[in-house]
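Lab notebook, page 48
Experiment: co-folding of the full assembly
Goal: obtain a model of how the components sit together before planning crosslinking
Operator: M.T.
Materials (sequences as entered):
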Amino acid sequence: MAAASSTRVWTPAGRNRDRRRQKEQWGNPVTYFIALIFIAVCIAPVLYLVLGGFRTNSQITTSPAGLPHPWVLSNYTGILKSSTFWGEFANSTVVALVSSVGIVALGLMVSFVIARYDFKLKGAMYSLFAAGLMFPLVIAITPLYIVIKDLGLIDNLFGIIIPQIAFGLPTTVIILVPFLRAIPKEIEEAAALDGASRLGFFARMVLPLSLPGVVTTGILAFIGSWNNYVLPLYVINSQRNFTLPLGVQQFSSQYSTDTAKVLAFTSLAMLPALIFFSIFQKRIVGGLTGAVKG
Amino acid sequence: MSESLGTDTVAGSQSQGTFGAGGAGVTASPAPPRAAARRRGRARMRLEITLLSGPAIIMFLAFVIFPVAVAAYYGFYRWHGYGPATDWVGLNNYKLIFTDPAFQQVLWHNLLIVVLSLVIQGPLAIIMALLLNQKMRGRGLIRVLIFVPYVISEVIVGTGWSLMLQANGAMNDLLGHIGLGALQSDWLADPNLALWTLMAIISWKYIGFAVILMLAGLQSIPDEIYEAAAIDGASFWQMQRRITVPLLGPTIRIWAFLSIIGSLQLFDLVYIIWGQYVSGTAGTSTMAIYMVAQGRDAGNYGYGSAVAVVMFLISLVVALIYQRFVLRRDLRGAVTEGTV
Amino acid sequence: MTRKTRGATVAAIGLGIALAASACAGGSSGGSGGSGDSAGGKVTVTFWENATNGPDGLAYFQSAAKAFEAIHPNVTIQYQTIQNEDFDGKLQTALNANSAPDIFLQRGGGKMQAEVDAGQLQALNLSATDKTNVGAGALAGLSIDGQAYAVPFDTQPEGIYYSKDLFQQAGITTTPTTIDELEADVALLKKINVAPIAVGAKDAWPAAHWYYNFAVRECSQATLASTAKSLQFSDACWTKAGDDLAAFLKVSPFQNGFLTTAAQQGAGSSAGMLANHKAAMELMGSWDPGVISSLTPNQKPLPDLGWFPFPAVTGGQGDPSAIMGGSDSYSLSKNAPKEALEFLEFLVTKDQQVAYAKAFQSIPVNQAAQSGITESYNVSALQAANKATYSVLYLDTQFGQNVGNAMNTAVVNMMAGKGNAAGIVSASNAAAAKG
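Observation: model returned without errors.
Model output:
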């Protein structure tokens, strides 16, 4: 539930709650206790990974559940000092941002058409994108690779970005269409009376009103891109174009893997996605509301 | 003219220069005769539809539908991946799939995973969402923490859990340290346990998403209802049972739909934790695992493609049935939009 | 698959997709596609290898290229190292797209057969000197109907690596030569609370190699050869090998949870157990010491590592000295220039082979270069290899991906108590139908 602007009295997410900026109350202790258990279960495995980065492989093998003893900082410091890591970080960021913007922009436009225009092929269009939900990327990776190759995008960041946008569209359309449909007719009519065309309405009313939905799909797209392993693996060849998920390969030789370094690397690699999510999490709830309300 | 500026910014993202022009000369022209206006209106609408949906559709066709279609084409060949596919075997691959006991086994595993995901995650997520829906301090933090597993990639999750759950891994080590040595088990390899282990990991990973979705659904229930119920003297739990859960119906049904489709396509976690060989033995193999193991890893690209097609058809049928019988009331829309 | 195609990292790093034999990983860069102008003009030879064994291997190849370029000023050798798991997919795409490298790593067996069938490989025209350098036996394994299609660089006899310290602690004085002795040693090792034998069954092939070694003992050389052609496992020895393995499993020789232990990827793998003295033995090819040394507490080679050949079984049809193994070999793509072949010939000369063995800690294929070997496990392995009346390629490689994978899976099933020796036969027949 986003109260993005204080002047707004209506959100597509349904009714705007009374949002006085009052101090939140402390909740019931039982609630906190249950939440605490829940959180412990959620977080413990993640902590295990993070702590594993402070150990050596030998420690992990001989005493799996032990704490780091002694603490080894070199796994983390080595990664943070390496230019390779920061290069991969930059690539991942570029790919994730461009993919998210592309998914949201194209998805919003096509969702607007499906939600607010009346034409014959509307149902077919929706079904086309909905069917996309049933295709995991694994199925089509071979022919997809050939398409990317024919476009000359192998070993190019756009070779990841463009297919990611295409594969990200179904989810976006599914979330945004009900959302855009929920915008009352009256608003559109009022805009029309003011002399706005439908495109004007789209630009001036729909975009601001659908902000929560846009942020939601943007977050999902960003996280999906950040964690994507398969596509970069196939498309990218040279180290300078590696994204973070491919970076773990540098800790693997032909027959072995440096587990402790992998744990340190992955712990660092997941941080940005977590931070990104924490910043926008309030919006995600607001955004999904439109979708699930239908 | 002002509106064309707005549209331009949208269009700018795909460099369609004509966009702004299309949006312009409309309001500026003097009122034309009515029939012409309608015609022009229709033409204009067509143009708008084309411009707005064109880029997405072209991309989707080129990078999703076309490759999938090519994969389907390979499904009619016996093809080892070197040189062009020439050995046409018609429907033979499909015949083999449906007669292969190993495929029947993975199909059964997939169905179990679908059902168990719904049964385990659904109630937990609803209860959690009800608790977190109260206005209280720290709600945002709790939400973020619960969502953490969902944000982390499958790759990392799989690596971590397989390290922890190996027979000589952290979980058994920990149980030994705290005096629960009797509970030590072979979490991953014991066929009686492995599926439950997988379900625990799946629930851990995806429940955050379910909770957030439920929370979103709860936002759209008007406070007035609760106020009225409170005046009537309803207790907290009565309100939840009588008001919240029924009104949450659409959300629950949407979540279930996403969960079913996700379960049918489960791949990464199983592949990373069990590998392609042992998953069958442990009873955690899925259709996607079968596809990769029998297709790509065995060098039978044609056969693998046929399995992919079968997987798609199964997902599609399940989705259509679900839309038809479960979602009909909530979602005039998804796949069956045109026919409702 | 053999060690090479199921290397490690994948699952450990976690990986979404089967790379080990993926459809088309990445690019088709390189690949001169036969740009060779054999009349003495400038020639670039592209060379794809998976030598990711750290800096030593790469350094060797680069210095070898420099040495060769010094002799042939018109030639430039261009390396591309490719992550082992991605190698097959990338290569396959390149071959299909007609942009194959001139020289590339050859897995051998069924895979090589498929490449030859598709007309992708150059038949190698080797001189008498080459044949002396490489050795007839090693070349035979890379030939089809007497025609060689790849040149081996080393020889990798498979056997059991063991910890001398743990054997001593358990009171074992000599390494076992029969399965009965091995079973007795297993009992002794259990008394000192270590896992007697580590096996990485998660990757299937390490477990399946136990079955294959039993098969090499049970089946005659002729049966092995004819089965590789027909892929019909009708001879009783195949079932007998399965029964041998089942009987051996009765003494529970492997570590707990061996089904989900990976072979070599880092902490918690079977190689890691040996490296940290949590297990006493592991059946592996000759790259194992390198893996183990990266997983010891000080990340140095394990000082007490030894090697002995797979023990004999009573009444087997196979020669008790026979040995199963493989090699790192290289093929030429169909349009490779003659300079590519010259480079391969150069690499198997004595001095190059000495340097190669040093860099890779392996046994060079050139017998003249073998005198430089010092590590006790390599010395034992070399003795066994030289004593062997015949050697067999890893059977899963020999049978090809399709049947090899199916057999590996069937063996794992049997070891998990969900199948029997007959299941291995039916699994391979089912696989043959799909391929």
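Interpretation: Confidence is low (pLDDT under 50) at residues 1-22 of chain A.
Next step: discuss with group before ordering constructs.
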